[in-house]
Every structure is written in structure tokens, then in C-alpha cells.
């Protein structure tokens, strides 16, 4: 089947099966254009609970599809490629969280949603890059175990009076670790009128030279609302495609052309078609883990309303 035929074939299958496609901002442009809803982790988690659908195809990485499965036990959640696994999420197994809780029994556990379900089942509440500061500051506890992203933990630390203990000690996103102050300063020199938008998964050194620290959804909002006409985007390049498409009168420069998440890019239009056609691969989370992890996720959604 040709690439040109796939959007129509996918559309027909969606109608036949009462299905929707959710896609993260880091997906390739054809998938972004085919998705019913495009967004960040928090936006897609919320959207999944509002859908009157039987099937949800999740074009994102494993932990995102797990979130949708936990929040929607009555829906069949599919991920087009099981190799779309977030390396950072794998850095925090549930056992590491349990051990940290034993060592810091009075601390609250706040886990980034970029964490697998079995670890999130050990959390008091989850958060996203968009609401991490809000979630931490809403808690009564003065000590917070925060994982798995060390750089996001640093960002929270700058915006709270609470003690933040990162778990693991050095969890990270390999894409956001690629960005360097030197690359951004060079771009800024060449484009002095550009605003620098930096994702909080980037290193503290990069965050310090940002004009604004933003999640992907916050970058979209800032770009829409700002008077600036040019932006240096310091996150995965997939977001640049969306920004250029939705705001054609503004200019968007990726901080690094090589800032690509290989796992996000496992999904293709062909795989989405096959996923819908064959109803594969079903995302399943055990009832016990789902129940505990759901509580932490629902508490996040309540705090961040």
C-alpha cells in the first residue's frame, strides 16, 4: 500500500471501529496530521478519559500508553510498535522507589509520568513537566522523593522551598542531554531577536540561559502569545514541525537538528494502519498495579485542574 493511500485507509478503519488516534508532539508529521488529538503527556492523559471510543491507538512511548490503559479500563488501548520504550522510564524500577521510601519514610513520592506503571504504583502522586512545580508545592510534606529525571528535579528545586531528593541519582532523557549551552549561545548570537524556549529535562546549564522554561504544551502557548517572531526550540525536533505548521508567520529554529527521540520515531503510518486493522498491540497493566498507579495519576489530574 502506498503512503498516499494510508490516511484514507486509516480514516475508514477509525470509523468502522469507533477508534481515535492520540499522538505525542514528538511524532513524525504525517502521524501528527492523522491524529485526532495531538499533545503532551498531560493533555493526552486528560483527553483519553473524555473520549467516547472503543479503541485508542496511542502514538507515543510505553509509559504514555500505560497511562491511557490505567485511566480507561473500559477501552482497548493499542500501541503501534512495542519497541517505543522510553529509556528514562526504564531507569526507575519499582524496587528503587521502594528502597528510597524505606530510607525516607516521611517523604512524599512524586514521580514524573515518564515512568513505568509498576513504579508509579509506589507513588503518592505523578506529575508532568508542565505541572511538576504545581504538584510538589500542593503537597504537605517537606521532603519529596522525585524521579526519574534529575534535571526536572533540579527545575522543581529552583521553584520550591521543599527538599527534593532525586531517584535515581542521575536519571535523564538522552535527547535533552544532547543540548549544550555553547550550541544555544551560538544560535542566539546569530539570531539575537529570538526567544530561547527550553524544556526542563535539559541540563541546569541550559535551563539557566533560557528565556522561558517550558513543557511542550507551554512552548506552544508561549509561541502563540509572544510578540517575538523567532524562537530557538530546545526539545525534540517533532515539536518544531507542529510549531511551523500552526504558526507559519513565525520562525522556529531547533536547538539541535539531531535532537531526535528514536523511540518516538518507531511509529509509522503503516504501523498505525496495521495496529487499527489487527487491533495490536494491546497495552495491558495488571489490575493491582493499575489501581495503585491510577490513584497517583488521578491525584495529579485533580491538583492540576
UniProtKB/TrEMBL annotation:
<keyword id="KW-0963">Cytoplasm</keyword>
<dbReference type="InterPro" id="IPR003473">
    <property type="entry name" value="NadA"/>
</dbReference>
<dbReference type="GO" id="GO:0051539">
    <property type="term" value="F:4 iron, 4 sulfur cluster binding"/>
</dbReference>
<keyword id="KW-0662">Pyridine nucleotide biosynthesis</keyword>
<feature type="binding site">
    <location>
        <position position="129"/>
    </location>
    <ligand>
        <name>iminosuccinate</name>
    </ligand>
</feature>
<feature type="binding site">
    <location>
        <begin position="199"/>
        <end position="201"/>
    </location>
    <ligand>
        <name>iminosuccinate</name>
    </ligand>
</feature>
<dbReference type="Pfam" id="PF02445">
    <property type="entry name" value="NadA"/>
</dbReference>
<protein>
    <recommendedName>
        <fullName>Quinolinate synthase</fullName>
        <ecNumber>2.5.1.72</ecNumber>
    </recommendedName>
</protein>
<feature type="binding site">
    <location>
        <position position="173"/>
    </location>
    <ligand>
        <name>[4Fe-4S] cluster</name>
    </ligand>
</feature>
<dbReference type="GO" id="GO:0008987">
    <property type="term" value="F:quinolinate synthetase A activity"/>
</dbReference>
<dbReference type="InterPro" id="IPR036094">
    <property type="entry name" value="NadA_sf"/>
</dbReference>
<comment type="similarity">
    <text>Belongs to the quinolinate synthase family. Type 2 subfamily.</text>
</comment>
<dbReference type="GO" id="GO:0034628">
    <property type="term" value="P:'de novo' NAD+ biosynthetic process from L-aspartate"/>
</dbReference>
<comment type="function">
    <text>Catalyzes the condensation of iminoaspartate with dihydroxyacetone phosphate to form quinolinate.</text>
</comment>
<comment type="pathway">
    <text>Cofactor biosynthesis; NAD(+) biosynthesis; quinolinate from iminoaspartate: step 1/1.</text>
</comment>
<feature type="binding site">
    <location>
        <position position="41"/>
    </location>
    <ligand>
        <name>iminosuccinate</name>
    </ligand>
</feature>
<keyword id="KW-0479">Metal-binding</keyword>
<keyword id="KW-0004">4Fe-4S</keyword>
<dbReference type="GO" id="GO:0046872">
    <property type="term" value="F:metal ion binding"/>
</dbReference>
<feature type="binding site">
    <location>
        <position position="216"/>
    </location>
    <ligand>
        <name>iminosuccinate</name>
    </ligand>
</feature>
<dbReference type="InterPro" id="IPR023066">
    <property type="entry name" value="Quinolinate_synth_type2"/>
</dbReference>
<dbReference type="GO" id="GO:0005737">
    <property type="term" value="C:cytoplasm"/>
</dbReference>
<feature type="binding site">
    <location>
        <position position="261"/>
    </location>
    <ligand>
        <name>[4Fe-4S] cluster</name>
    </ligand>
</feature>
<keyword id="KW-0408">Iron</keyword>
<feature type="binding site">
    <location>
        <begin position="112"/>
        <end position="114"/>
    </location>
    <ligand>
        <name>iminosuccinate</name>
    </ligand>
</feature>
<feature type="binding site">
    <location>
        <position position="86"/>
    </location>
    <ligand>
        <name>[4Fe-4S] cluster</name>
    </ligand>
</feature>
<keyword id="KW-0808">Transferase</keyword>
<keyword id="KW-0411">Iron-sulfur</keyword>
<feature type="binding site">
    <location>
        <position position="24"/>
    </location>
    <ligand>
        <name>iminosuccinate</name>
    </ligand>
</feature>
Amino acid at each position: 500500500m502506498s503512503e498516499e493511500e494510508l490516511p484514507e485507509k486509516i480514516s475508514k478503519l477509525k470509523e468502522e471501529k469507533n477508534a481515535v488516534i492520540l499522538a505525542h508532539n514528538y511524532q513524525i508529521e504525517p502521524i501528527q496530521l492523522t491524529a485526532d488529538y495531538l499533545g503532551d503527556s498531560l493533555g493526552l492523559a486528560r483527553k483519553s478519559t473524555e473520549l467516547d471510543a472503543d479503541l485508542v491507538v496511542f502514538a507515543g512511548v510505553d509509559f504514555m500508553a500505560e497511562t491511557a490503559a490505567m485511566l480507561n479500563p473500559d477501552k482497548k488501548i493499542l500501541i503501534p510498535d512495542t519497541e517505543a520504550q522510553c529509556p528514562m522510564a526504564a531507569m526507575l524500577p519499582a524496587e528503587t522507589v521502594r528502597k528510597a521510601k524505606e530510607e525516607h519514610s516521611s517523604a512524599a513520592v512524586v514521580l514524573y509520568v515518564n515512568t513505568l506503571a509498576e513504579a508509579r504504583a509506589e507513588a503518592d502522586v505523578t506529575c508532568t513537566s508542565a505541572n511538576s512545580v504545581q504538584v510538589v508545592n500542593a503537597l504537605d510534606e517537606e521532603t519529596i522523593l522525585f524521579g526519574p529525571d534529575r534535571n526536572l528535579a533540579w527545575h522543581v528545586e529552583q521553584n520550591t522551598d521543599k527538599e527534593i531528593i532525586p531517584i535515581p541519582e542521575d536519571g535523564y532523557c538522552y535527547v535533552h542531554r544532547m543540548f549544550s549551552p555553547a550550541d544555544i549561545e551560538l544560535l542566539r548570537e546569530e539570531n539575537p531577536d529570538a526567544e530561547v524556549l527550553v524544556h526542563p529535562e535539559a541540563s541546569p546549564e541550559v535551563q539557566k540561559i533560557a528565556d522561558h522554561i517550558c513543557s511542550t504544551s507551554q512552548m506552544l502557548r508561549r509561541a502563540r502569545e509572544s510578540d517575538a517572531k523567532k524562537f530557538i526550540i530546545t526539545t525534540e525536533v517533532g515539536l518544531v514541525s507542529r510549531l511551523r505548521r500552526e504558526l507559519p508567520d513565525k520562525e522556529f529554529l531547533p536547538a539541535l537538528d539531531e535532537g531526535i527521540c528514536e523511540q518516538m520515531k518507531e511509529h509509522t503510518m503503516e504501523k498505525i494502519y496495521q495496529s487499527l486493522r489487527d487491533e495490536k498491540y494491546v497495552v495491558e497493566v495488571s489490575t493491582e498495579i493499575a489501581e495503585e498507579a491510577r490513584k497517583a495519576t488521578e491525584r495529579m489530574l485533580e491538583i492540576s485542574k
